[in-house]
Structures are given as C-alpha cells and as structure tokens.
Amino acid sequence: MLAAAGRAIVIMSDPLRLAFLSLGVLIGLALGVIPGLGGIVGMALLLPFTFSMDPYAAFGMLLGMGSVTTTSDTIPAVLFGVPGTAGCAATVLDGHPLAKQGQAGRALGAAYSASLVGGVFGALLLAVSIPVLRPVMLHIGSPELLAFAVFGLCMVSALSAGTPLRGLTVAGFGVLLALIGADPQTGTRRWTLDTLYLWNGLPLVPVTLGLFAIPELADMAIARRSIAGDSRVDSRAGQWQGVRDTFTHWWLVLRVSWLGSALGAIPGIGAAVIDWIAYGHALRTEKRAAETFGTGDIRGVLASEGSNNAKEGGALVPTIAFGVPGSASMAILLGVFLIHGLQPGPDMLTKHLDLTYSMVWSVALANILGAGICFAFSNQFAKIAVMRGPVILPLIIAVLMIGAFQGSRNWGDLMALILFGVLGWAMKRLDWPRPPLILGFVLGETVERYLFISHSRYGWDWLGHPIVLALFALSAWGFLRPLWREIRAASRVGTVLSGYRRSPRLDANTAFYLFLVALIGVMMFYAAGWRLNAKLVPLIVGGVSLFMLAVSFLHFTFRTSPDRDAGGVAAVQARRVPMDLQVADAGLDRRTVAVRARAFLGWLLAYLALTGLIGMLPATFAFIVLYMWIEGRERWGLMLGSAAGVTLFCYIVFDRVLHLAWPRTLLRVLFPDMGEFVPSL
Amino acid sequence: MTFSIPGGCAPLVALGLSGCVMLAAAGPVAADSVSDFYKGKTVTIWVGYTPGGGYDVYARTFARHWSKHLPGNPEFIVKNRPGAGSLLVTNELYNILPKDGTAIGVIGRGMPQEKLLGSDQADFDSSKFTWIGSANNEVSVCVSWAKTGITSFQDLRTRGMIVGGTGEGADTDTFPKVLNNVLGTKLKLVTGYPGGTDVLFAMERGELEGRCGYSWSSAVTTHGDWLRDKKMNVLLQISTEKHPDLPDVPFVMDLAETDQARQILEFIFARQAWGRPFLAPPGVPADRAKALQDSFMAVIRDPGFIADVKKQKLEVNPLPGPRIAQLIARMHQAPLEVVNLAREATNKRDRIQISKVALKEMTVKGTITDIKKGGRAVMFEGGGQKGELAISGGRTKVTIGGAKGSRKQLKKGMSCEFVYAGSAAKAISCS
User: Fold this and answer.
1) How many angstroms away from the CA of A561 is the closest CA of chain B?
2) What is the least distance, in Å, from the CA of B193 to any CA of chain A?
3) Which of A53, A453, A662 is the best residue to mutate to test the B interface, defined by the most B CB atoms within 10 Å of its own CB?
C-alpha cells in the first residue's frame, strides 16, 4: 500500500501531469467564484479534453478542478453574502458579518487555510482508509443511507437555536419543497403546477441564491452604503490573522474535516448540506457559540470551509470502490473510468492501486495549490468591501441572475430566484431562520426515497440494524438536546402565568404566519388526492409542520416576548433571535426601508422584463447603466465601462466558453426566423 | 471491417453484428441549405438520464464524432436532463425544445410505447417524432447475484427474486412486472433507487438479489469484472432477437406458452429493437431530418468512432431512423386486445392471469373505416388507435343520432364513440 502511494507520488510529479492539474485548479477557482457555476459545469467542459490524456493526467485535471471550487467560492460569500457554490451557504452566516465589520481579509484568510487543511485531511483520510473501504461501505445499505439523511436532518434543531418552533416549521416546509416533482414510487407529478419546469423538482441553485444572496443585496441597497460601511478594511494583515485563527482552532477544523469527508462518502447527502451539518456541529460543541455564531464568529467560517473541501475526498470513495457516484460531478468522473477502460470496484483497490492513490494526491495537491493561489491574489479582494453600493450592486446582480439561470436553464430558474429572494428577505426581516429550510430541502427527497426502499425491502426489520440504531440514537440526542435547552432557557426567562399579553400581537409577522398556513394548507389539500405512496410523506410532514406553525403562531400572538419586554440578565443569557444573519439598517425608519425594498424588487423585475424582451446580454448592459445612473448618478465613463466589461465577460464565459443556453426572449418567439446578430437573443 | 452497399440496403458488419443501412445521396441544393443552417450552430443532445449511464455514454460518443458528418459541421454538445425515466426529456422534445434540428434527444427505449401502455403523463405522440436512428439493438438481461444461489430462469418461477427498480416506468420496473404477469415469475420489486448504479451496488451488498432490465452492453462495459469472476448469473435475455454472445441464456420469446402471451411479449419488447434511440422533435424540416439520419449512419462507419466505441467496449448494431419510424407505426396498429393486455401486464405489480384478466373498458372517439362480416365487425381509427372490434347483436349497444339502432345501420365514415373491452365492443354511439 505504501509502495503504491509512493509510486503514485512519483507518477503525479511528472511535469506535464502537474501542468494539467494546475490548469484544472485555475479553472476550478474561476468557476467557484461565479455563483451558479461549479464543478459540474467544469467537468462537462473539460471532459472531452481528457480523452487523449493518460488516466493520471485526466483524473488529475478533473479532480484538481473539482476540489478547489469550494476554496474560491468563499470570496463572494464573504464579500457579498452570495455563496459561490451551493456548498458554502453556511460560510455567509459568519463570513459576511465579518466583512461588514471590515474584517473581510481575516475571514478569507481563515477560509483558505481551513479549506486547505480540510481538503488535505479529507484526501489523507481517503488514503489511509483504502484497505478497509469496500468492507465498510458494504455495510451501508438503504436503511443506513436513510439513517444518515435523518441524522443530517436532525441538525435543524441546532440550527433553529433561538426560534425552535419556527425552525422546525421551516425545515418541514423545506422537505415539502423537496418533494415537488415526479414521485419515484407512483410517477405522480406532485405540486408541479402543470409546468414542465417543476417535473424534476426545484433546482438547488436558484433556491440557495434566492434565499441567501438576494436578501443581502437587498439590504445593501436599502442601507445605501458600502459593504464594510465606515470600518477600516484589513487586507494582508487580516489574512494572516485568519491563518492564525485556523491554528488556534485546529481541533475544530480537524473535526469538521473528518465530518465533511465521512459525509461526502455517503451518496445522497450532498455538498449543499455538509457545510450546514458541520456548522451545526460547531454550534453545539464550541464554547458560547450559540451566542456569537451568526454575528461574525470566525469559528463559523472555519467549520463551514473546513468541511466543504474535505467532502471531495470522501465523494471519491463510493465512486472508486463501487462505481456509485456520490455527487453529480462524480457521475461525470465515472465516464472517465469508462473512457480509459477502467472499471470502478475491487480492481481499483488492487490492480490499479497506483491510479487510486494518484487521485488522492491530486485532491491534496489541488487543495494546496488552490489555497496558495487564493492567498497570493486575493490581497485586493478585501478592498471591494469599501466600494460604493450603486457601483458594485448591479454588477453582482447581473452575474447572480445569469448564475441562477444555470439551475436548469429555464425561465423558471429566474422566477424561482426572485420568489425565494422575496421569501428569504421576509424571513430575515421577520426573524425566521433560513438554514433549516435548506437542510430540509436537500435531505427531504433522500429521506423519502430510502424510507420506501427500506420498508418495501425489509418491512420494519431495518429499524433493528445496528448502524441504523446508533445513528437514530445520535440523531435523537442531537435533535432533542438543543430543544431541551431552549425550553429550559425559556422557562427561566418568564414564568408561564405572567407571560400572556393583554391583546393579541398583530404585525407583519402575523401576515407571514397566515401566508405559511395558507401555503402549506393548500399544498396538503392537493396532496390529499394522490395515490397512497405519493401522498404519505407529504401529508405527514405537512401535518407536523402545520402543527408546529400553529403552536408558534399562538405563542407569537399571545405571549410576551421576553427579550424585548423584560430585558434583564436572564434574557441576555439565552439567544432569542434565529441562528441567521441579522438586519442592520443603520437607523432607517420603516417607511424608508419599505420604499427602498420595493424599489429593489422593482429593479430585479425590470431586469427580468428586459431579459424577456431583448435577451439577457443586452439586458445586462442596459440594467447596469440604468441602475448606476438612477441610483448613484455615477460618471458616464464608469457606467459604460463597467457595463461593457461585465457584459463582455458574461458573453465570453457563458456563451463562448461554456456554451450555456440563454433564456428565450419574446422577440425570438415573435420572429423565429430572425438571424442571430445579437448573442443571447 | 468491410462495407458493401448494393441497392440501398446493405449488410453492415460492425463489431461482429449486423444491421441494415439505407443510403441515398442528398441533393446538392438540400445539402447547401442544410449546411448553411448548421454552420456555426450548436446541436444539443439532451439525455434523459444522469451522466455516466449507458444512454449517456452512447450520446457522448456520438457527440464526439458527429460534427464532421453533418453538413455545416455544427458543434455537438451533450446535456443531461434526468427525470421520470426520461419521460421529462421526451415531453420536452415534443413540446418545448426547438424543432429546427438543433435539439436531439436520447430517451429510454420504452418511451414510444408509454402512451399506448396507458401513461397519462406522456404528452406526445411517438409516431410523430423525427426518428434519427438507434445505436444498438439492445438485449436486456435479468441477472442474479451469484451468492444468492439463483442460477436459472426456472428459479425465478419457483423461488422468486428481489429486484431493484429506479422508478415507475423505467425498464427496471416494467420488465419484472411483465415477466410476473406473462411468464409467471415471482419477482419482488423494490423501487425508488436513484439510478442503475445504485441498484447494482445494492445487489452487491446483498440488499437486492438481482436486477431485471439491465442492458447487456452496459453490463459488459460497467461490470465486465462481475461476469468474468462469475459473481453475477445471467438468467434471461430480453429482446426481439437472441444475442450472439449469449447462446445458452434462455430467450424470453421462447418461454411464452401461448400465442397470445408471445404477441404481448413481442409488443412490449419491440422497444429492444430501437434500444438506444436518437430522435428529434416532430416537424424538423425534411432536408435537415434526412441529413441527421444520414449523418447518424455515417458516424457509425467513421473509423474514429469505431475505435472510440471499441475502447469503451460499447456495442453498436444500428437501426436507421426511417426503419424505427416504420416499426413504431406498426406498433400503433397492434390488435387492441394485445395492447390492452400489454397495458395490464406493465402496470399491475402482482401476477395476473392473462386468460382470466378482467379487461378494463376503454372509450375512444373515431371514425368507422370499414364494415366487415355484414356488420358483425367494424374497423375504426381515432384517438391515436386503430383496430377491429367485434359487434354482438345482443350485447353491443348501438346508438345512432341519440336513438337506439342496430349493427346493420353502421356505415363506413360515421364518426362514433366506441366503448370496448379487449376486442369486443360494448357500446357504439354514432352521430
């Protein structure tokens, strides 16, 4: 084994192979920065170039690319609150507040070094576990996969800290959203609104970007200030501080790396929740984390970033050992095996052990290289945080829209982006936690799928499998302990009797409650007519969510809120706001906020309308110029220059290089024979 | 490898298998307009499955070699749009993807029958698609994991087997149902796995005992080691013709005990003939459709393609587009009783007795195309179906213009509503 590992290092140190690996890393870093693009797009793009390479170089380039998208995706997450890939939404929670405090450099430095440690550690874990991989994985059956998904789902209670009932409701709503689309058991089209768009379910990209990115951009537009406000910005010095933070919290970083690579090996868990599970883990185990997470705690950044890079090493496990792709990009990698006449399975761990180890080294090398490049070149990134809002905002919005469109290249993606943007903004303003929604959304389908398989294969016997029992016990503990803490904290703060209000509370939150009740109610009404296997999970989850929602609603309407009324030391002890980003409006009154929020939504809709009329690229140009002029009265040179720059960039990257589809326009529908004189029309 | 092309239809010796190629030179005018159209464009191949699977591998291999054979040399790219066993992409191809020849699909071979077999979610008429060609006459197999001790087809009838499926409508789900219903096997279906690779993994770890509806070509490519090491037994081959590599494996058509059972199997498994179908939306301009069909066959003769295919151990036994269209048209004319029984056989999860099945009443609107035996039988066409119905003097209720009538009053050309079960008419009401 050691000999094979050694041979693999020699093989990989061939200059040409290293060059391909580095090329992959550069492309991966670029894809990670752009929201909506990630490893999958890159794999599909690079795949044809690997046919003529030897397998070492081919895997080196593709893995090099896939490994580092989660290193650079931190940059937009920290600076703008826009997650660069779905795998780093948790980074936003603490990384972005740090940027607002002028500590973007520190957050980035910590993120790069945690990514580096996580990525290398994930690869090493893979390397040492190769001899036992297959026997261990053969014990992971459908009931175990189900138990892992349930384990992940139970993290919602930790992520609902401060607002447990709302958190659970939102998680249930997330599960319901995950069940949209054709059901595997009966083929029933669930909640597809008769659109083809929803047949395959809601795509993750527009949902994540809508929930997390749009609200941040909206609040930036409302506050009318730069990201860092008046704070001084650290850049180089901050990055080194971030590196030191990583070493101070080395035990946390190692733990989340382990968690990331182990969960990465489980098919069906997915990159989009691994960061949240690690974040929830840190939240529960780190000292006083419940009070400071979500407000710019460096440990939150470390947890998320350490885990999402470690995942790539883990995801290789089922692919190499069994030919079962653990993620979408691994599925494409599987194609490389076929092209080179390799068969995933036992042969990879015996006959082709050199190759397997060369993959391990590729992941490790790529992580080192990726973090190094980010360190070297992102010195200036932190300074973006002081740029004026009207200058930077339209540029981010433009890239965000085009990125969201990559969800499934359908107009529905843009609609979903805006709808979930509005939902996310309302949730952020009204103190509803968003992380549980993502967790429910990603894991809901997996839970349902393996629940049916486990039941139809084993009856109820699967509940007795030892791994299932252990995971369920762990889940129950993880689920109930934070809840119990909440209940105790709540009972300390106000006594039951004196906690009632004289008159019911009615405000914007009342409307939001009613909206959710109506929405879930309508969904359940439609579900009631489906065949049994199609409606079972929707009705149970919907019912539980409605119950939680009702209790929470009553609680909200008739109980006094302790932190605001009572104040006092006890209230400060317990967190009474959701585990999520907090709103900072710089003392604006509600009227101004409402007017500016509507204006922002107006801008987004105007951009969509322009896209529908004249095509996305011309719309991008027009949108940037108009936004800068109306909102900021910028100089013409700056306006035209940046609009032309972004449009050209999008044209080259999305149209010429990646060959991605554009939204269909009205002009095209009306005049189908019109020539293609403007790209994207 | 040699090719001779006498008189348009030629034996094609590709990788030891045979097929039939139609060749005709496209006129220069047509070629010019086709090449003008495709110049600088991108043709997207939409694959209804996740990357890495059998259909996807075929699509990607064609995509790499297609450009130089299509006039105008457009770029070919592959996009995966998995969903509902490729029903999603099939519906999209029919309804929303561009009909100008820049969108091509690779769909499940069962899709053309989807509507006939009673799916209310198939929003397409398979006879209207532009069929480009099929890369392989696919032989599907039933396999068992050797450790289970299941070694022969007979075991499936006596002992039974737990098989995995990837979702309602997929071959992995449909084939076990058909075998249970028509041949009396005792397969137990556990469905909902995310993909074929997951089913195989579940089989390897002992959760499942086997898989029915596994392309032989895919088995050779992705798990040749299991075949080599005898970890997996091949129990049954399912196709319209036996596979030359599997002379000793029982052939599904040989196992039918009655003529009717055989007809049902032939109807359902007709899909194997167009095992790896490439198609375009309906209404692609004729010259481009022809260019696509011709270039598809040209790709198959391309030495670069052949080398590529060999490297990946892919099986290629092509069927030209026009031939697929013929077969699908013929499939639409199958006797109603066979279609109905096939529908039952593919939908019912448990075993049904073909002889005793309670036939579902069907209603169709259409016109009378012929009267036979003095009104004792009537030919009809409409609602995408056509066939012959027996009319009984006593049991068939005939209504004409709202009033009670007799079978003698039925005339050719009348438009009527037919209610029938099997091939017997229950009620006919004409205007």
Assistant:
1) 46
2) 7
3) A453
Domain at B362-430: CATH architecture: Beta Barrel (2.40)
* pLDDT, tens digit (0-9, with 9 covering 90-100), for B221-280: 778 889 999 999 999 999 888 898 999 999 999 998 888 888 889 888 988 888 899 999
What is the pLDDT at residue A565?
A: 40
Per residue in A455-484, pLDDT (tens digit) is: 988 888 889 899 999 999 999 988 888 778
CA separation, residue A517 to residues A520, A521, A523, B247 (Å): 5, 6, 10, 63
The conformation of residue A68, written as its DSSP 8-state character, comes to: H
- Answer whether residue A29 shows pLDDT above 80: yes
CA distance B191 to chain A (A): 6
Chain B contact for A660, CB < 8 A? no
- Strand B424-430 with B415-421, pairing: antiparallel
| A 343-372 → B contacts, CB under 8 A | 343, 345-347
| CA separation for the pair A302, A282 (Å, rounded) | 9
Please, where in chain B does CATH 3.40.190.10 lie?
140-259
Q: pLDDT, tens digit, for every residue of A57-94?
A: 999 999 999 899 989 999 999 988 999 888 889 999 99
Chain B stretch 26-45, residues whose beta carbon is closer than 8 A to a beta carbon of chain A: 42, 44
ipTM of the prediction: 0.85
Task: Give the start-to-end residue ranges of the domains of chain A.
Answer: 2-228+239-572, 602-670
Contacts of B204 in chain A (CB under 8 A): 138, 322
Assign domain B140-259 one CATH number from 3.90.1170.20, 3.30.70.100, 1.10.10.10, 3.40.190.10.
3.40.190.10
Question: CA torsion angle for B407, B409, B413, B415 (degrees, to 10)?
Answer: -70
CATH of domain B9-136+273-331: 3.40.190.150
Q: Is A663 on the interface with B (CB under 8 A)?
A: no
Residues of B with CB below 8 A from A138's CB?
204-206
Check residue A634 and report its DSSP letter: -
- Which is it for the CA torsion A580, A584, A589, A592, positive or negative? negative
